[in-house]
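Thread: Modeling a multi-component assembly for a lab meeting

Hi all, long-time lurker, first post. My supervisor asked me to bring a structural picture of a complex we are working on to next week's group meeting, and I have zero experience with this. I have the sequence lines for every component (874 residues in total). Could someone generate the structure of the whole assembly? Inputs are pasted exactly as I received them:
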Amino acid sequence: MVSITINGKKVKVPKDYSILEACKELGINIPTLCHDERLEPHAACRICVVEIVGMEKLPTSCSTKVEEGMEIYTHSQKVREARKEILNLLISNHPLNCLMCDKSGDCKLQKYCYEYNIKEVEYVGEKKNYPIDDSNPFYISDQNKCIDCGKCVRVCSELQCTGAISFSERGFNTHVGVPFEMPLEKSDCVSCGNCVSVCPVGALIPKRKERFMYEETKRVRTTCSYCGVGCQMDLIVKDNKIVEVHPAMGPSNKGLLCVKGKFGYKFVNHPDRLKKPLIKKNGKFVEASWEEAYSLITDKINEIKGKYGTESFAGLTSARCTNEENYLFQKLFRAVIGNNNVDHCARL
Amino acid sequence: MTNSIEEVLGADVIFVTGSNTTENHPVIAAQMRQAIKRGTKLIVADPRKIELAKDAEVFLQIKPGTNVALFNGLMNVIIEEGLQDKEYIKERTENYEDLEKLVKDYTPERVAEICGVDANDIRKAARLYAKADKAGIFYAMGITQHKSGTHGVMSISNLALLCGNIGVESGGVNPLRGQNNVQGACDMGGLPADYPGYQKVNESEVKEKFEKAWGVNLSSKVGLTIPEMMKAAEKGTIKFMYIMGENPMFSDPDINHVKKALENLDFLVVQDIFLTETAELADVVLPAASFAEKDGTFTNTERRVQRIRKAIEPVGESKPDWEILMDIMNRLGYKKKYSHPSEIMDEIAEVTPQYGGINYDRIEKIGLQWPCPTKDHPGTKYLHKGKCARGKGLFMAVDHTESAEQPDADYPFILTTGRMLYHYHTRTMTGRVEGLNKISSESYIEINPSTANKLGLKDGDKVKVSSRRGEITTKVKLVDIINDNIVFMPFHYADGAVNYLTNTALDSIAKIPELKVCAVNIKKIS
Ligand code: SF4
Ligand code: SF4
Ligand code: SF4
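Re: Modeling a multi-component assembly
Sure thing. I ran the full set together rather than chain by chain. Output:
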């Protein structure tokens, strides 16, 4: 542990911490654009700079380790000015069409510009003019909005390990893309959307059908319903509809998802969903009330039990239902119907 | 899994066999590749040159159905070269001598012949695995869906024991479970011989325990497995079936047979979120709520019990499965009521030792891994620490046996089946997601160019694929990831459903059908 002073407060933190980690633990918010706790510090966007007494330059807090006796200011005038300058440069060639941008409300650039009181565009730079790549079925790449934070490329190559995208060209024309300026569709991309989930701005954005603003939504933490990895994720819900899915830092997925978890949620609100009990009459299904369906089922159970005995029943429980439901299903057979003819598709 | 997913990152060697991890467990595959980037070595054994094979130090493209021979061959090399963990074997295992005797005959040359691989690659893989400090084996249906499936699993466990890899961090034998809650469905007693927690229905103390807990008399007769149920239904001894959230009309081998069986029932209840192929055959269909419309828990492949939470109201008049089941139990005279799934979990914890310490408060933020016997137990990251659960690790020497169906003049090709990234199981869910369908909407058969040449087939040609059980039509996809005379089909599609072809030959122990190997013929349709 080392003793440091942050914003006038003395604290002790583990000695392998970065200043950013120390601040996070103390609940001090430092803006970041290129930082991702799963990756090595990148120190590219520089927006996380802080002031350290005795140091001329402002170091980036993500890549600077704490040292005994350090006196740190995270929001001093000097720091605020430096951050403002960075933001000013970032918006000099940004489309700034927040009114029409799907990311609005969840965009870090927008948030920090507001927080740092940017009132107008100070430098008017040349705007970028890339075609929008919407060849992927699930997400759009609009490189005019890219702020070159590098997260998408690093996540794709270091965490997802697909390496489908990279930076093309250098300097002003730097942008994220597929080798040889091909559309994403022609790349190795497996549509996991992990790049989309980390993009701090609207440059990589899910295709959406529903119109919604983030402040109208709620987030519900849950477990993916597809495979046995059990990835943790947040459902973004508006008006009783899932409108987006974000990965969470679960123990088995560490903030990653695959295409099914990230984009495969639309079955939930699909029109084909069964909405009422159905009873087959003369070979055709007709809608019925729960009362009717229940009575029919229990009558049949009692009738068949009377005629053929308890051994004439069998049930398949489900590897897709919850533990609680599987428990009740086998209990229904064992305790109420009276046999052990319960199985499920584990073997398949 | 004996071990945890994140332990992948600490392994020196990862051995993936019978699992196309990048397609079926993509987020585990991503973590495997992270490990490889940091220096972990990878061994892959699979009939197809799967994505991960590109990252492998050694890739063994084995003939389908030859897993046991391969594992025996690897062990032969390890013992011949004295690379086994002698101390571990002495202290923590028994029956080693039987294994040593059995694998003597499995020389790399002989095994190379059976598996269709290079003997030196077998040696290389064996050395790599045996010399690693921590090596984890990962497998899936490619091992289990064979007539010799249980033997395959035993062989894997032999190999891990031989090198002292069970009960160590980042080692272990790790089956990757397909559907999201297969683990939980098994844990909860969704099995004909087991109450929750794998307590046997035919043991009298167990029966008494549950009779007391549930307040009823129980049967000690082991129930029927799915294939047995289907046979009984066809014969007419099973009259009533209740199918919750499963689609056997699609996922089971030999669909024609399943259809006959279900049609022969007096009454069929199906409970699901969509009108599946199976639901079409029902007398009553009950609309269930989806995972986003209810509270509950799933247990993932690393035994971690995790929450799902209600995010939206049930669609239409659908109800959560637990509510439906409770209603029916109540109407049949069993009066127990639950006001929330957490109360069901409390009951589960009372009767299931492995879940004894689990309740909703404890898993609010992070799920717990069973065994978690008491309220102050932290859960179990990896199994068999210090010693195996049953005391000593038991070697079970098993011989290679051929698949039930071998190619012959009428059906000259071996068909193997599997899953793909963009779809899930029988596609009742993914088939209704636009983008997923855009990427891949129809069934296909993977054939290598030289086999295709022999048959005069081009990419995209329509073909009739037939086996002794049925025939389907599908489209040719030319690939170089599969060997001559072996073909592959994903099992997700209703048009050209591959399970009209597959074999119901069962593993004699686990009763798993041999979905991974059957003999077929292929003809072009003009
Ligand atoms: S979607 Fe996944 S694979 Fe595709 S570019 Fe993004 S991170 Fe890479
Ligand atoms: S596309 Fe987004 S994540 Fe990628 S570099 Fe640009 S701003 Fe960063
Ligand atoms: S996101 Fe993908 S890998 Fe994760 S649980 Fe869902 S299906 Fe499995």
